[in-house]
Amino acid sequence: MPQTTLPGEPDSGTSHTTGHEWDGISEYNNPLPRWWLYTLYATVIWSFGYWVAYPAWPLVSGYTAGVLGYSQRDSVLAEVDGVRAVRDARGQAQLASVPIAEIRADPALLRLALATGKAAFGDNCAGCHGGSATGRTGYPNLQDDDWLWGGTPEEIERTIRYGARSGHGEARIGDMPAFGRDGVLARAEIEAVASYVLSLSGKPGVPGASQEKGAEVFAGNCAACHGEGAKGNPEMGAPNLTDPIWLYGSSPQQVVTTVGNGRKGVMPAWEGRLDPATIKSLAVYVHGLGGGK
Amino acid sequence: MSQIEPARKSVPPKPRSTTVLSGRTKKFGTAATRTAIPDPNGALYAARRKIQPQAVRGTFRTVKWAILAVTLGIYYLVPFLRWDRGPGEPSQAVLLDLDRGRFHFFAIELWPQDVTYVMGLLILAAFTLFLMNAVAGRVWCGYLCPQTVWTDLFLAVERLIEGDRRERLRLDAAPWSMEKVRLRTTKHAVWLLIAWWTGGAWVLYFADAPTLVGQLATLRAPTAAYVAILTLTATTYLLAGHMREQVCTYMCPWPRIQGSLTDEHSLNILYRVDRGEPRTSAKKTAVLRAAGQPAGGCVDCFACVTACPAGIDIREGLQMDCIQCGLCVDACDTVMGKLGRPAGLIGYDTEANVRCRAEGRPTSLRIVRPRTVVYGLLVAGVGGLMLQSLATRSLTGMSVLHDRNPLFVTLSDGTIRNGYTVRLINKRPVERHLSLSVEGLPDARVEVVGGTPDRLPVPSDATQEFRVLVFAPGGARLGPSLPVAFRITDPASGEGAVATDHFKAP
Predict the structure, then answer these.
(1) How many CB pairs under 8 A join A and B?
(2) How far is the alpha carbon of B469 from chain A, nearest alpha carbon, in Å?
(3) Do B42 and A145 touch (CB under 8 A)?
(4) Is the distance from CB of B304 to CB of B331 less than 8 angstroms?
(5) Which chain B residue has its CA at the smallest distance from A101's CA?
(6) Do B20 and A4 make contact, defined as CB atoms within 8 angstroms?
(7) Distance between B72 CA and the closest CA of chain A, angstroms
(8) Between the CA atoms of A225, A227, A231 and A235, what dihedral angle is there, to the nearest 10 degrees?
(9) How many angstroms away from the CA of A264 is the closest CA of chain B?
(10) 3-state secondary structure of B221
(11) B-chain residues within 8 Å CB-CB of A5?
(12) Are A225 and A238 in contact (CB under 8 A)?
């Protein structure tokens, strides 16, 4: 068998090692190519230029701004402005001018209105009605189909625009009198009528109260607004008392309080605070939550 | 006897004529280290010695020209292939539409969520490379790698303008003259032209090619296109024109893992030491043989070395810088032919066979070995899985998301309503109207905000989100959570998809 060797193995005259040797093993000198070295130098020089040109060094209460004046925040804001301009040019003007029925019939406009409405709802309405529009005691749930002032898109838009008891000239106004505080009804009468209306929606009434007396009191004092059958009247914001949905709570105690003290919830008028396109979008979005009529 | 000797200074110098019989062991010498020495100052950084390869003719050269023509032809022309996908859809056969997030490969359309196919392709490519290596060494490096193909093209241009090796060496050494300036300018201009064309072809894969060509010609193309062209022009010019073999030696990781992919049964371009050694000139060979002394087939003419685009000496054995392009084979065969000696002193052979012949044992070719069988099975397996998945994938899809808050809504008549966000997926290049139904909920009613459940429009090649409301009469039989199934069907084609979710109640 022939002898074997490795090419470039140290032998006299041709091999080059670094001179380092450990346990008889010496280290080859395999030089890096020169262009590699120059590339390294170039990147080092580049980094200096970068420090000068761009924001780089943190200072005590700021940072070096760089001669180019570049700012990531500014570029993001510029980008946002650009998107906003495009959006406004394309759809917002149309949303403002087209009737709601037409918006809902046009899939592209509908998508725009729903997206705009959803964002505006989070910014303006979620504080009272909740992030998912489910409301809470005293603040209507906008997901269900019980509407004090009517649940068509147009009626919803009007409620948003002018508000309820907001002080605006066109605002929705309904008056639930304070039957107890104003001395119109006696405590027993209030308990009786509360018990009666709770029974209309299938809920347990006030223990010991007379249903017949309650019906009598209702016919005399409440039917004018809530209707003979207690089905409510959206013209005056009188709620339907026969359904299981109670804005101010359905416990006997809560209903007694409502009858005795009255209720005057306020919905702000958004006209002037939001532009017409946004208000319309909000109406479309709220109606689209699923409870709209 | 050990194959690797530690680099002991105490080892006595070995005669030059000792044969190299390495099995799986790698050689550590590279062209750079050899060209770097001797360096009396022990500098850490080596200047490059320019390699001026000699032109050769032969089988491998012809094969390489053919592969060059085919691969570059594919690269430059594919963007112009048309594929009719109907109105409103891109009619380019191969289009990487980044704007719309759609990759088109002839009849196949990939969406961002199909990225698994890209992963599969990469795995397939890796296993194919392993298989190629196990069978026939660095076939990829020698013939198919873009770096090799473009470098070959650039070398051809150089040869055409400045002449062959001798003329180029002479030109390198010559002082600057009008003639030298003219030749160099022409060469770099042609190189830049090819590089520019390379970058130009690249961007055509990302937009409608004829339109983009028009835009580029009239300077109305997107900035990104110009940036991409400039970048690729620069890299092509630099890598194929100036860096050449250095890309393979220093920048490419592939040579570094050759040791684990090649074994003694792999075919490789090898110098058949058993035939070639001891090497000496043709005249001396005759004298030696007449005197009954051993003399090998190699005449030490250095034709293989001057022809090598990597600047290595194949006679030193398998080396990291060797891209196995076979040009040394052509060079050697030409010389042998002229001398009237048998060809094949350098050629595709296995280390095992070289050793067998040296030891007088019979040679054999073992293409089918555990390694190649495993790689082959992996290639077939991954490829089969991908084809099967591609053939059976649905072009209609749906995802359903239940409203998180509120989980349900009680309506004034006691009906329970649940809200869902449903996203419909249409991977067909036509607008479709899909029909949605809910199963598993008796007496349920389905409403879609801004649409009707039996006719939901989804644009071509797009997804569309809908808010779906499901109503169920309230009552004791509704548990707090009821499994429901959403079924989507395309009345036109019968295709569909099912997604499951839950219906929540008090």
Answers:
(1) 166
(2) 7
(3) no
(4) yes
(5) B450
(6) yes
(7) 29
(8) -40
(9) 22
(10) coil
(11) 5, 14, 18, 20
(12) yes
| Partner residue opposite A34 with nearest CB, options B33, B38, B47 | B47
Using CA atoms, how far apart are residues B72 and B357, in angstroms rounded to an integer? 41
User: Collapsing DSSP states into helix, strand and coil, what is residue B505?
Assistant: coil
Q: Looking at the partner chain, which of B22, B45, B414 has a beta carbon nearest the beta carbon of A34?
A: B45
In sign, the C-alpha dihedral spanning B217, B222, B226, B231 is: negative
CA angle B494-B496-B497, nearest 5°?
Answer: 165
Output the CA–CA distances (angstroms, integers) from residue B253 to B34, B247, B320, in the order listed.
20, 10, 11
> Contact at 8 Å (CB) between A290 and B419?
yes
> What is the pTM for the complete model shown?
0.75
Cβ neighbours of B334 (radius 10 Å): 17
Interface predicted TM-score (ipTM): 0.76
Q: Which residues of B touch A21 (CB under 8 A)?
A: 9
Alpha carbons A25 and A27: distance in angstroms, whole number: 7
CB-closest option in A8, A33, A145 to B412: A145
Q: Tens digit of pLDDT per residue, chain A (293 long)?
A: 343 444 444 444 445 777 888 898 888 777 788 888 899 999 999 999 999 999 989 999 988 888 998 999 999 999 999 888 887 777 888 898 999 999 988 888 898 999 999 999 999 999 999 999 999 999 999 999 999 999 999 999 999 999 999 999 999 998 899 999 999 999 999 999 999 999 998 888 888 888 899 999 999 999 999 999 999 999 999 999 998 899 999 999 999 999 999 998 999 999 999 999 999 999 999 999 988 88
